[in-house]
Fold this sequence. Notes:
Layout: H1 2-25, H2 33-49, H3 55-67, H4 70-97, H5 105-137, H6 142-165, H7 169-190, H8 201-211, H9 216-249
Helix pairs in contact: 1-7, 1-9, 2-3, 2-9, 3-4, 4-5, 4-6, 4-7, 5-6
Amino acid sequence: MKYQAILLVTVFLVYSLKAFRFYFLLVGEGVSALKYLRLFAITTLVNIVIPFKTGEIFRIFRFGHLTKSYIKGVSIVLLDRFVDTISILLIFATMNFLGNYRLGRIFFLLAAVSMFIALCFFIMPGMMEFWNEYFIKTRPSNRHLRGLFLIKKIKTIYVEIRNLVKGRFFVLFTLSVFSWLLEIGSLFLCRNFFDSDSDTLVSDYLSVALTGKEFEPQRNFVMAGVVFLSSVYVIIILIQLVKKLEHKNGR
């Protein structure tokens, strides 16, 4: 009973932080809280049920529809994934520094990808300016027109991400780190309930979060998350139905 209570509290806190993190990215879009929470619940539910984070594609389309801009949907999801990735990398690196975890290939792979993405973000303006000038100055052709169109789309996504990063990155990063620390903290509180080696419990849990392999604590967290998010989704639908009925009867 103690384990279930800790698990439910952890799930509530972690997904509340994640919901606030996404909502922080939507500041200024004029999205109502109920509509957003309903969308967050269903997209997160799909994302944790479908393996290998392929549910992010569904999230991109749904957030794109919500903001009336699929480019913004792509930008929001990409930035959230990047922030979450560097957060867990920081935790891995800290654990390695404290001697509690030996860095594996997945860490270096994600670190390399994150560094490459960050590098691309910083050099992107110069690259777009170079290729834009190149296509304009060379003889016009269908290939060059397609190149200019692609550069325009990439520039739009870049500007969206840059605008989202300004004044928000530190808050997003902090919220992501806290959500991971909450999950890790619950493991320490519940380590006596698992058959796994308590010395490697946290590192095994985080590794599973990256690789998608089966692991009891992670499976329990996902199952509790499914129950919680499904409940939130149903409750919000009921609230919206009641509001519609009240509005209809008030006419």
